[in-house]
Every structure is written in structure tokens, then in C-alpha cells.
């Protein structure tokens, strides 16, 4: 599927605990008067499905936006913004983006590539010298049957391209089990409570999960990229993204923490996860973090992120200035190209986890929602749905 040319409509669903963006192919079906090609009863069925999860205490609440051909054709809210206070979900509710921060940082990186400030083939150590001479952790079984960690030299350096495509050899400590992941947990690598310099210093002492370029693994690579952009630009990541992306696109509620005046709009989860039955602990977004996490630290609203997402597909937005329009439209082409889509599919097939939603895997709720959204298409719209992290459409008169 060529996201650059045929992804003409977008779905955005923000829930109190996750973000999802889905795009489906345009088959050239004629637009209906009311919904640009969607059957309204079926769109209502989508909201009904969300309401059912809310009533069943499987989901606190959600904001649902559907846009096609530059028109916002469906906007609904469901459930609660905060289960503890019983505050209802609102259109302008602010969500923790978590991994949907990654596309923001990746676009900023590509803009700096265009300006010649960095190059995709640059060794990361050129800009972050602390990350030179890294080692790779290899698990061995000793004579007692115990797992031990042997460190070996890297076969090559990590490049900026590796950071962008998650082939740097880094990992996440919270998902899966390995001795390297254990070291991540001990050193708080997944968190954002350490200043950037301290965080990179600790990371430099830990082994990689795999050889650079040898495999795709979802990881803290975009966090490293965020720190790299700070070093190169001389700006903190929040200032960089505000000047380069948030302000030009009119993303007025997108940042790395929520100001006091807006804190009554923060979405909160259930105290206990309804599926895993564990206590839910989310990042504290009511104060500036010690480190601006490029991999998961931003907050935003559904409308704000829809502005960014559609811009990445079409390179156009009514609120963007002409120079920014030209810059980001060129920047986003590689991200939305057919080649990129094919590489993503190959990586997912190799990983064996099915379709991706947000952070690299699909939960039962994710898959249920994907089916509901595909069924919301009119009967004559037969395009096959596929899941993407960046989706959108050209803005029209109804665009927020």
C-alpha cells in the first residue's frame, strides 16, 4: 500500500491509556453527502463498540476522530477522562502520547538531515561521543546451567539511520526478558527521571541487545535520537519540536508536560489494569521531566495529533506557513513512501506479531477496534485496512 498516494482518509482514536492511528486505502468510491464515503450507521456502530468497552470497564474513555479528503466527518467522545474524579471525556482532553512521540522526533531529525546538520550515515558517536566503543551482550550458559552475559565488540558503529529504524541494537527493559533488559531495569533506562547527560552516560556502560543493523527491535533508539538532536541543535527537545513542528502546525496543546491551567484536562487510566490486573503507573506529566523523552514523553490532544498526522501524509496544512509546508512535505516523503511501507511489513512478518498498533504489538482491544473501524466503511468501499503510526488527509473547511 502506497501511503503517499492512496491513504486518503484517517481514523484517530485516543483513549485514556493509549493512542492509535489507522489508515485505509481509497478505492475511488464516490463520496456520500454526509460522511465522505462512510456509512453513518456503521460509524455509529464504532462509537457503540467503544461505549460497550466503557460500560464493561475495559476502557475508561476515548476521543474518536474520523477524517477523509480533508474533512473532519466524525467526532465523538465516550466514557470518562478520569475514572477517579468521574470527569467526562471531552474533545480537548490531553493524553500521554507515549510512543506516538516517536514520529514527532523522527520528522524533526529528517528536517535536520535536509539542512545538512546531520546525515543518516553519521555514526551516532560523532554527535554523542559517549556512545563510542559500545559492546554487545551475548547470553551464555555456564557449566552450572546458569545464564551469564558475555560482552563482545560491535561489528560496526550505530548510525542515525539505525536509530530511526530501530536497528541500533538497543532494547526496552519493560518488555520481554533478557540479561541486557535486566541491566536496563537496574539503571532506570526506560524512565525519564534522569537528565540527558546522566542517562546517556549510564546507557554507554551497558551492552547492546544485538549487533547494530542485525535485527529490528523496538527500543529506546528514538530517545537516543532525541538527545542527539539536542546536542546538534543546542536546544532542548521541547523547544526544538515547538519551534519546528508544534507552533507552525498550530498544535497548541502538544508539549512534554501539561501546564497548571490545563491539568484539569489530563486523561487518566483505571487504577488497576482490567486485563493484566496490575496497578497502572503512568508518567507524571504535571511537571517538566528531567529528560525530554523522544521515545515517549509528549502529551497532546486528538485534534493536535490529527494535524500532524495528516501533514505527514500530504505535506499540507491550512495552518502551516508556506516555507514549513515545503520543508515538511519533502521531509515526510521517505516516511510515507511505498518502500517504507514494504520494509515495515517485512519487519513485522519477521517479528511474527501480526499488525502493529502504536508501540509495536496489537492487544485484543486493538484488534477488535481495527475490525470495527474497517466495518465502518460503506458497503461499496472495499479497500483493505492496514495499520499505521502516521495517518491523515488533506485539510478542508471542517479541519480543526
Q: Can you give a write-up of this model?
A:
A six-stranded antiparallel sheet has the order 5-4-3-1-2-10, with helices on both faces. The chain has 13 helices and ten strands. The protein is an alpha+beta fold. The protein folds into two domains: 3-93 and 301-387, no CATH class; 107-233, DD-peptidase/beta-lactamase superfamily (Beta-lactamase, 3-Layer(aba) Sandwich).
Characteristic terms for this protein:
400 residues, alpha+beta, Beta-lactamase, 2 domains, 10 strands, disordered N terminus, disordered C terminus
Question: Could you give the topology of this structure?
Answer:
Elements: H1 3-6, E1 9-15, E2 19-24, H2 40-55, E3 61-68, E4 71-82, E5 87-88, E6 95-96, H3 101-114, H4 124-127, E7 135-141, E8 147-153, H5 160-165, H6 179-186, H7 196-204, H8 221-233, H9 237-246, E9 299-300, H10 302-314, H11 322-332, H12 338-351, H13 364-375, E10 385-387
Antiparallel strand pairs: 1-2, 1-3, 2-10, 3-4, 4-5, 6-9, 7-8
Helix pairs in contact: 2-13, 3-8, 3-11, 10-11
Amino acid at each position: 500500500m502506497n501511503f503517499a498516494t492512496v491513504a486518503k482518509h484517517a481514523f484517530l482514536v485516543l483513549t485514556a491509556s493509549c493512542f492509535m492511528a489507522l489508515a485505509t486505502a481509497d478505492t475511488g468510491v464516490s463520496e456520500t453527502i454526509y460522511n465522505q464515503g462512510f456509512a453513518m450507521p456503521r460509524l455509529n456502530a464504532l462509537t457503540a463498540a467503544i461505549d460497550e468497552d466503557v460500560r464493561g470497564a475495559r476502557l475508561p474513555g476515548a476521543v474518536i476522530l474520523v477524517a477523509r479528503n480533508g474533512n473532519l466527518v466524525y467526532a465523538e467522545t465516550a466514557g470518562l477522562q478520569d475514572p477517579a474524579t468521574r470527569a467526562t471525556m471531552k474533545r480537548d482532553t490531553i493524553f500521554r502520547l507515549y510512543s506516538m512521540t516517536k514520529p514527532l522526533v523522527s520528522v524533526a531529525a529528517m528536517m535536520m538531515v535536509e539542512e545538512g546538520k546531520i546525515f543518516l550515515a553519521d555514526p551516532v558517536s560523532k554527535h554523542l561521543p559517549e556512545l563510542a566503543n559500545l559492546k554487545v551482550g551475548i547470553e551464555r550458559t555456564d557449566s552450572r546451567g546458569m545464564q551469564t552475559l558475555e560482552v563482545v565488540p560491535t561489528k560496526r558503529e550505530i548510525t542515525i539511520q539505525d536509530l530511526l529504524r530501530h536497528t541500533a541494537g538497543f532494547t526496552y527493559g519493560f518488555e520481554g526478558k533478557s540479561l541486557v533488559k535486566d541491566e536496563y531495569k537496574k539503571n532506570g533506562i526506560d524512565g525519564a527521571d534522569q537528565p540527558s547527560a546522566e542517562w546517556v552516560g549510564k546507557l554507554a556502560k551497558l551492552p547492546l541487545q544485538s549487533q547494530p543493523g542485525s535485527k529490528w527491535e523496538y527500543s529506546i533508539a528514538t530517545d537516543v535520537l532525541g538527545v542527539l538532536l539536542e546536542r546538534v541543535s543546542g536546544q532542548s527537545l521541547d523547544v526544538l519540536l515547538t519551534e519546528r513542528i508544534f507552533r507552525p502546525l498550530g498544535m497548541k496543546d502538544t508539549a512534554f508536560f501539561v501546564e497548571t491551567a490545563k491539568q484539569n484536562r489530563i486523561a487518566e487510566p483505571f487504577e488497576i489494569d482490567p486485563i493484566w490486573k496490575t496497578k497502572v503507573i503512568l508518567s507524571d506529566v504535571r511537571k517538566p521531566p528531567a529528560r525530554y523523552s523522544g521515545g515517549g514523553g509528549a502529551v497532546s490532544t486528538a485534534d493536535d495529533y490529527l494535524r500532524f498526522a495528516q501533514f505527514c501524509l500530504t505535506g499540507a496544512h491550512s495552518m502551516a506557513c508556506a516555507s514549513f509546508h515545503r520543508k515538511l512535505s519533502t521531509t515526510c516523503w521517505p516516511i510515507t513512501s511505498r518502500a517504507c511501507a514494504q520494509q515495515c511489513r517485512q519487519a513485522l512478518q519477521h517479528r511474527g506479531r501480526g499488525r502493529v498498533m502504536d508501540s509495536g504489538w496489537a492487544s485484543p482491544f486493538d484488534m477488535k477496534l481495527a475490525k470495527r473501524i474497517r466495518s465502518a466503511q460503506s458497503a461499496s468501499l472495499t479497500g483493505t485496512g492496514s495499520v499505521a503510526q502516521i495517518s491523515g488527509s488533506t485539510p478542508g473547511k471542517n479541519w480543526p
